[in-house]
Amino acid sequence: MLFLLKESLLNLGNYLSLHLPICSSQLLRGILYILIATFAFAWMNLLARYLSEMHPLQVVFFRAMGTFAFIFPYMLYKKIPVVGKEVFWLSVRGIIGFISLAAFFVVIQRIPLGPAISIRYIGPVFSVILAVLFLREKVKPLQWLCLIIAVVGVFILKGADFRIDEISFLIALLSAVLVGAVFTLVRYLGPKEHALTIINYFMVASIMGSLFFIGHWRMPMEKEWLWVVLIGIFGLIGQVFMTRAFQLADTNTIAPFKYMELIYALGLGLIFLDEEHNQMALVGMLLIIVGMVLNVYAKNGSKTPDKKN
Description:
Layout: H1 2-19, H2 25-50, H3 56-78, H4 87-108, H5 113-120, H6 123-134, H7 141-160, H8 166-189, H9 195-211, H10 223-248, H11 251-254, H12 260-273, H13 279-300
Helix pairs in contact: 1-12, 2-10, 2-12, 3-4, 3-9, 3-10, 4-8, 4-9, 5-12, 5-13, 6-8, 7-13
């Protein structure tokens, strides 16, 4: 466990040392922002685990409300379109995102953080498949190999960690499939809608969807009030900094840093939840990260960086 953390940090340091001399200040800010975003999301997931005695849809409500309460007034102030032009697809993106988030929070309450996040990270596998089917995108053979590596990692992880029961595994896969659908829809909506309009639909759908389960909610007690407030704050920080990171730097550079969330989660799980993982489980998680990162390079490696991504 500690060896994996050490190696990951060393690799990150080596990457930066090779690229720092040629990095612009804008690119460095993009990298810093994605690291802040993934750190915030890791803490949000940890707090969701702390609230395992509350209904997961109640946790979804607090996470969504924390973001909505800040971005909606900002959208009104900046006169950013609230409704948007592609109402149907914006609504579909919001609903799918809500179901994916709800499934993920259910899984977080059932299995350790590391495996839960790892399985959800194969969302790009399904995104590629959906993009081929609906957006007519072409996929390089090397990409398929990278995606297969990630899928193999998922099944190694499932077989090595007996804390991952079949129901939790299927729910985590459902969340990953829906993440892939969200990625595809965002690629479709990106050139047509403002980023905050897309995010706002997601937050509204999550708030409205979670209210259907209000009969299963209960009042937070003692420290739980702090946890629910912090979930909203960390969710907002993660959302804002991740969006800003992808605006500042090209996807090819930024996307690999997104997987630092798993490293953070492994560390937080070990420190605060005493979650340990055997070597084969760590191998499975590592294969998922390797497959997903290599997929980014296989897809975009030959492209000229686009600062608008």
